[in-house]
Design goal:
Distance between the termini: 45 Å
Helix content: over 70%
Radius of gyration: 22 Å
Number of strands: 4
Length: 450
């Protein structure tokens, strides 16, 4: 710290030394009074810097900040740290003019197309406030996707650093998770057979597990491409987090992601196949080493929670049949549940716990068709390019999207931190696909010949 202070004294003008000291005292006082206030002050101070700094800062901090899914502002609006960093990245794009190719603009418009397809659901919206909040959320996500695609496709170095920081952030999120499990920190509802399920900074184990289900195949793809012990250990750490979350949906999603990763890589070399196998064996070993109480509890599909999930799905289907075309509007499920709940459904749920049914119920059939078409087009494009050029990292990104989509069939993508992670994966796929398909960017492509 002393060396850093001396370096700052050499760089900063004398008049800035007092300002820096004052800010340090103010921040220390804020931490002592309320950590939330300190975080809000730090966010307010860093946001303008991110807007005007090199795009690697805003995109990179957004990628690693997805792992720190904590609230910055709760009133009058609810904004988490990843959302704040995403907004700073969007603001950075508005004050900078960067060139973009027609192909990049097509990828960037996909979020707007989905939001537009969801707008007819406003006709039958049962909750005006919820509908307004939902459309604002979809609009912001569309803007974040556009900003990510524009930045990542214009700067290959930004795409490479964002990919690595995304995985590093996920590994760092396992640290508080281990503390939660070892010291039994968390609400009693997260305890399964006496073992605390880890939730890291996501406030819910299933949400954190869904986030890891997308990042784990990405980490596996990097490890297969780099073939280094450092990235292999990173894969093992994220696998540990997946197990500690106790999320059955996340386990299934990660497994499907690994299958997609292997399927997308053509003519695997022995060393690459060994790296992929290492990740699978590490996950199985960690499951075997975990306390039997945790694993047995999560593999018991006759428990109360599973029964309530089934009733939720049936209730959602009942609501869809009443209005199968337009939907009931964003945020409508929570408001309609007391009136349409099946007999025996007593769980306090706010979502259908199935992404496809949730989009159909709330946003309508047109939005569901749009979502499936856009995601399918993205995955098919990534699969074809990955198979043709043998890019394992692109295959890992493809597998990450598959993992999140499968896990979301037991939950939802519309969660703070999770939805931004999904958007970043789509944007990274766009950057890798365009790097291989655009002639001017072929030299910048980071592929693995196998």
């Amino acid at each position: 710290m002393g060396a850093v202070a001396i370096r700052l004294q050499r760089v900063l003008p004398p008049q800035w030394a007092g300002v820096a000291a004052g800010l340090s005292i103010a921040m220390g006082t804020a931490v002592a009074v309320d950590p939330g206030i300190a975080l809000a002050l730090a966010a307010a101070a860093i946001a303008p810097v991110l807007i005007w700094a090199d795009p690697r800062w805003s995109v990179g901090l957004f990628a690693v900040g997805l792992a720190c899914n904590i609230d910055v502002v709760r009133d009058p609006v609810h904004i988490s740290l990843p959302q704040l960093l995403a907004l700073a990245m969007v603001a950075a794009l508005t004050v900078r003019s960067i060139p973009s190719e027609p192909a990049a603009r097509r990828w960037a418009r996909t979020g707007s197309l989905f939001a537009l397809a969801a707008s007819p659901s406003l006709v039958r919206a049962v909750s005006p406030v919820g509908a307004l909040q939902g459309m604002v959320e979809l609009t912001v996500l569309a803007m974040v996707l556009a900003a990510c695609v524009r930045w990542l496709t214009s700067r290959p170095d930004v795409a490479r650093s964002a990919l690595e920081l995304l995985v590093i952030g996920a590994a760092l999120s396992v640290v508080p998770a281990v503390v939660q499990v070892v010291f039994d920190i968390g609400p009693a509802t997260f305890r399964s057979n006496g073992v605390m399920r880890a939730y890291s900074t996501f406030r819910q184990p299933n949400s954190w597990g869904l986030y890891l289900a997308g990042v784990f195949p990405v980490a596996l793809g990097i490890a297969a491409a780099r073939r280094s012990a450092r990235w292999a250990c990173t894969v093992a750490i994220i696998a540990l987090g997946l197990v500690l979350s106790g999320s059955r949906g996340a386990w299934v999603g990660a497994a499907f992601g690994c299958v997609a990763l292997v399927a997308a890589v053509f003519r695997l070399r022995a060393r690459t196949l060994a790296a992929l196998g290492f990740g699978a064996m590490a996950l199985l070993l960690l499951i075997w080493l975990m306390p039997r109480e945790l694993i047995a509890a999560r593999l018991d599909f006759t428990d109360w929670s599973t029964g309530q999930r089934l009733l939720v799905l049936l209730t959602t289907w009942d609501g869809i049949l009443r209005n199968p075309v337009l939907g009931w509007g964003p945020g409508s499920f929570e408001h309609m549940l007391p009136a349409i709940a099946r007999q025996g459904l007593v769980d306090d749920v706010a979502m259908p716990h199935n992404l496809v049914l949730e989009i159909w119920f709330q946003l309508g059939l047109l939005a569901l068709i749009s979502f499936l078409a856009l995601v399918t087009a993205c995955l098919v494009s990534a699969f074809r390019v990955a198979r043709r050029v043998h890019d394992v990292q692109l295959a890992g990104l493809l597998a990450g999207v598959v993992g999140m989509l499968v896990a979301a069939q037991f939950g939802t993508l519309f969660i703070r931190g999770v939805q931004e992670s999904f958007v970043l994966l789509i944007a990274l796929i766009a950057a890798h696909v365009l790097a291989h398909t655009t002639p001017s960017r072929t030299d910048d492509a980071h592929s693995l010949p196998v």
